[in-house]
Amino acid sequence: MERTLIIVKPDGVQRGLTGEIIRRFEARGLRIIGMKFMQVPEALAKKHYAIHKDKPFFDGLVKYITSSPVVVIAFEGTNAVQAARNTIGSTKPHESPAGTIRGDFALEIGRNLVHGSDGVENGENEVALWFDAAELVSWPRNTDPWIFEER
Ligand code: IDP
Ligand code: MG
Predict the structure, then answer these.
(1) Whose CA is nearest to atom 8 of ligand 1?
(2) Is the pLDDT score of 142 beyond 90?
(3) Domain 2-147 in CATH: superfamily?
(4) Which of 19, 30, 93, 101 could connect to 75 by a Cys-Cys bridge, CB 3.0–4.6 Å?
């Protein structure tokens, strides 16, 4: 089962869109295995965005993600990573199709509301970076057989 890390970024929390954003992933069929509300420490922000450390927007990105609290969710599901990315939409919100989170609620790249892991291995690594093993709950959801096909 794939894992993906979703972050409702500071703008999402401040704008009262936390519930709406989580709802979309939940309605898609993804299963929550971990969730927390937190102020992101600068060191964690830098680790999470390490791949962008040489980009001109890096400092602004770290400032943005640490500027105000976030909600972090670990989701599990078949095809969780790609499905979540499609639910989120494009990095540039103004190019993101209507129906996606960014296409429905955002206008600018530096205020794009939500993070989602961009690959299967990244999903595993990011969930492990943001959650201790003890914070994750493995549970059989009653609707699983209606969402995940038997294999
Ligand atoms: P993603 O969030 O769609 O995966 P990435 O390319 O991984 O996009 O970039 C991470 C985050 O960095 C973006 O969500 C956005 O908040 C920010 N970002 C990316 N490119 C730019 C830029 O050119 N200017 C300002 N912020 C950017
Ligand atoms: Mg990314």
Answers:
(1) 91
(2) yes
(3) Nucleoside diphosphate kinase-like domain (3.30.70.141)
(4) 30
